[in-house]
Amino acid sequence: MNGQPEKKLLPLVDSVPHYGRRSAMTCRYRCGNACSHPAPNKSGNEYFGDLVTEVVANRLSRRNVLRLSVAGTVAAGFAGSLGLPAAAAAPGTSRTVASGSALTFEPVPPNTDDAVTVADGYEHAVLVRWGEPILPGAPAFDPQNQSPAAQAMQFGYNNDFIGFLRLGGDDSALLAVNHEYTNEELMFPGWTSHDDATNQQKLIAMLAHGMAIVELERSGDTGEWQLVAPKQAKKYNRRIHARTPFKLTGPAAGSDLVKTNADPKGMVVFGMLNNCAGGVTPWGTVLSGEENFDQYFIGADGVPDDDKEALERYGLDTSVRYPDDNRKWDSVDKRFDLTEEPHEANRFGYIVEIDPYDSNARPVKHTALGRFKHEGANIRLAPNDRAVAYMGDDERFDYLYKFVSSGRMRSGDSKAAREHNKTLLTSGALYVARFAYTSADEIDGSGTLPSDGAFDGTGEWILLVDGDTSHVPGMSAAEVAVHTRLAADKVGATEMDRPEDVEPHPTTGKVYAALTNNSERGTEGNPEATEVAPRNENKHGQVLELTEANNDPTSTKFTWSLPLVCGDPADESSYYAGFDKTKVSPISCPDNVAFDPAGNLWISTDGNALEKNDGFFAVPLEGDERGYVKQLLTVPVGAETCGPWITDDARTAFIAVQHPGEVDGASFDEPASTWPDGDYARPAVINVWHTEGGRIGS
Known about the structure:
- The protein is α+β, with helices and mostly antiparallel strands.
- The chain is built from 9 helices and 31 strands.
- It has helices at 24-31, 62-81, 148-151, 184-187, 199-208, 305-313, 415-421, 477-482, 484-490; strands spanning 117-118, 122-129, 159-166, 172-179, 210-218, 225-227, 238-240, 245-249, 268-270, 275-280, 286-290, 351-354, 364-366, 378-381, 386-392, 400-408, 428-437, 456-466, 469-470, 499-504, 511-515, 542-548, 557-565, 575-576, 590-595, 601-605, 615-619, 630-634, 640-646, 652-658, 684-690.
- The strands form 5 sheets. Strands 14, 15, 16, 17, 18, 19, 20, 21, 22, 23 and 24 form an 11-stranded antiparallel beta sheet that branches. The chain has a 6-stranded mixed beta sheet with strand order 9-8-13-12-11-10, with no helix packed on it. It has a 5-stranded antiparallel beta sheet with strand order 1-28-27-26-25, with no helix packed on it.
- The protein is globular.
């Protein structure tokens, strides 16, 4: 960009290799330089896909259409009990597909501008930035005078997942936003290194993690929303951070694997870390996934030998005390030193559930949904009213999971029904996916389409644990819940290309997963390409479409296909559901997915390997335009597009612009991006709307 400072590598970064278009700064802070270390999965699982299988089409039954409608009624009933309209529809609940899914906007061309660029006919505005006051009494943000007390009352850093929930009519709502991680170089004037960081700076960073819940109001009769000032906001505004107490539930709660000196009962954990994507449940709570938690701990070399295998499977280096990508939080909180608390790391890596309508409700970590590097979790109700959550483990060669609740969702607007529904994720059956292929012998790693014209096949969900009963030989239910990766290794799950956001379609029930990339696929010592991961050295990723047998999410059988194999449309290895590739927008590294009321799939990207800025894309899933990808917007230099949410009236899209200016050599004092205010880079949430009041996309 014009005026960009000469790139300078920062301390502890220059010696670490990184991959793709991501900067070394991104690799360090996002995932603790995961790509510079061998993939933690060393299982060498054999592929079930050696069999040639018949793909069976599944149709949406009238019964399940009714079931999805009933779920929406339940959500509306809950909101009615508070005197509110329905909460924002969760995947698989109350959204109704509008007629005509065509996307009528002119796509934004790829670019490298230090700006948010939206398609003609649309406007955007910053809704809330890092550091803005959200609690009464919070000071105005001053980067030169930051403090832990102030950050605990201000909007956190690196906003990711966004959940939108209606509140008190069409013109009032809540927004729940994850704060995944921090870039200290970009936060603190005069920053040098983590070795020189003050304890106050470390505490500020800890408190900049977590989640913010804020109240919004509509700006007139438009698609624009604005933040309600803290003094005028009702009782809902809230900050959750690395020191907030959480309740543990599920088979691991109270087990020896999660007990510490500070918590000898193994029932209370302080904080959530590296929370990436999430979801909104049909009963009006927010789910959030803890992802790359391994990078916050030191002292893995000093844990008992019996604990080291499990720590290594989650990416912790057991050979050194201080990994060179560590934040050194142990100086302000000894629990981050595993020689002091060997089980503290076992208390992170879960799906968190938070009640945004009750600021006094303690958030919970659900061990029944397994422990891994969760991108997020999204719920679909089954015909028998059980809640089914879909989840991805965002690591090279890791797995796709689902959870089926033991209990059934209760309808109605009573407090008792809602409190019951908030227990649905405490017990149930956890499964991991194993894939089979129709054309396994034709996959050579080049991305060439098989002779049957599709990347597709069948698969099965393998049961790991059901309630307090383990189905993995040699492991207890608590061990499966805490060491879920090891359990999935044992049963032969299929190694994937970084499964990130996984969401069911709101009406068809088909499940869509963003498989971001895997540059190690097919390299020496690593698994070769398969039909579900058809390219070696996969820089651009793909999107998976999964259909449960009989369209019942509790089924243990499914069929699947890849509607998108991302990359340059001119590259023969890319595939856009058979659509004319000369017309599509190039897309690379799909990260999060969402749906609009017309049934279109929306995709945000992270780490565009086509040397352009990341963006927000839409693609129809049905009809003649299936595969016609179009880009609605791009984000600034160094930023990632994430957390997308399109409102149930399709008048607004909310986008999290994460880590603008995350470029090697950049700092607060010498920024690579000055978005959004022209001085220094600040992560922020924007909203986008149609200038003439139309629906997003059409």
